[in-house]
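Exam review. A common question shows you a sequence with its structure tokens and asks you to describe the fold in words. Practice with the pair below. Do the first one on your own.
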Amino acid sequence: MPRAECQALLDYSRALAAQLAWEVKRMAFLPKLGDAEHEGYFLTSGDKIRIFFDREQPVSGGSHDPAWQGVDKIGHALHDLDPLFDGFSRDPRLGRICHQLGMTDPRLLQSMVIFKQAHTGGEIVNHQDATWLYTEPQSVLGFWFALEDATTDNGCIWVEPGGQRRGLLSRFRRRPEGGAALERLGGPDDFSTADFVPLEAEAGTMILMHGLTPHRSGANKSPRPRGAYALHVIDGACHYPRTTGSSGPPTCRSGGSSRQGPHWTTEVQASAVIRRVTD
């Protein structure tokens, strides 16, 4: 992807984040990932565009600070609700990649812009995408687009080569009484002895990741941000478990707007509409 296109997408994302930040701050609401008080806000973000802030807020430089400063990410339905990301996410080339990797019916499930702000961008601990985006059998693929240069200094992704052979180590489930929790499936997910390698990437690079690949990214203490767009796809031919309160199986209407079709719940978000990659 050309750097100019990366910059345009990043500028657009920052403007969107600035608008969302203004709206939530006006309500004295500062949602952060991992905070128990904001769990419901996160769990119901599957069919919305919502904003999440860094745990460590920057030292304010005054009224001239950009409104998007301190934003961790926006998501998780950019691919459905925003025209620019809709078009980007449904590039036919992505659909072809999915088919080449054996998917029968590739469908978009989740999207987000991760800003990884300079100085305050938080650490993402070791995890597998399939923990959060669970299908039977496993089918999730992650498309990660570097919008800015990603290095070991500003928090690039680290992966365990061959780590997908560990199998799925844990699964994120909703509780019938509300909320959600991780369910351990195998042995302890102790990565202390694993050989992780950094995936440094220039702006415009796409990283494709198996859903079982353990990966992480460090905190960004550098003066350079590390923006990225992440898109997750599952195979509609696989079983997508429903949770309490869902209605109907994961279906979509080819050629039409999925937002007019039936909704169902995911293991991570409360209600997300899945559309084919090329719809």
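Now try the second one, then compare your answer with the model answer below.
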Amino acid sequence: MKKLISLALIVVIMLTFTACKSAENHTSPIPAKIYYDYLISLGEIETERSPTTGGGLERWNVHKLYYYVDDFNDDGIIDLAISNEKSDSNGIEIYTYKNGQVKKLFSKGMPYSAGTEIFTLAKYDDTYGIKYLRLNSLGDFSFFRISKDATIEEMFSGGLYDIDGNVLDTSTSYDKIDPITFYSIGELKKMF
């Protein structure tokens, strides 16, 4: 009987330790609450506009933006992506939670361009990254992986069409890039 009680106690301790490690690594609903509270406390976020849109700062009301949470750079910490549109946005901000603080991890300006490009969070073969698409007749595109140090590394690039408008083989790679559908701040709040 003592062995059974000891074994049960060990299991409880291990489960408690696992739950604590999970919370520490932010794999529970805790990150959504942290990010939600952070956004609400700010009321507005300030982003740097891309030079192609004239540069400078832009202020965004947090209730008018869209969000997505997950570990985007495989460092074990749940991050927050912010977009100005639900999908195929024109710019992206990514924040992370380290040492008890929300910090900007990656930024590519919102807006990123004057409407001729898409630059947004996406997935390719279960890898998060940045989808870039130039809205021109050739449909130039790239997919960039977000590294642990918050830099982006091009995984592949190509074009959708040749100069005569024929579909190129590289368009099959583009078709495998899954768009991310962001959610409102109200939907973010429902996560915890």
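Model answer, second protein: Confidence is low (pLDDT under 50) at residues 4-28. The helical segments are 2-24, 30-42, 171-175, 185-189. Full marks require stating both points clearly.
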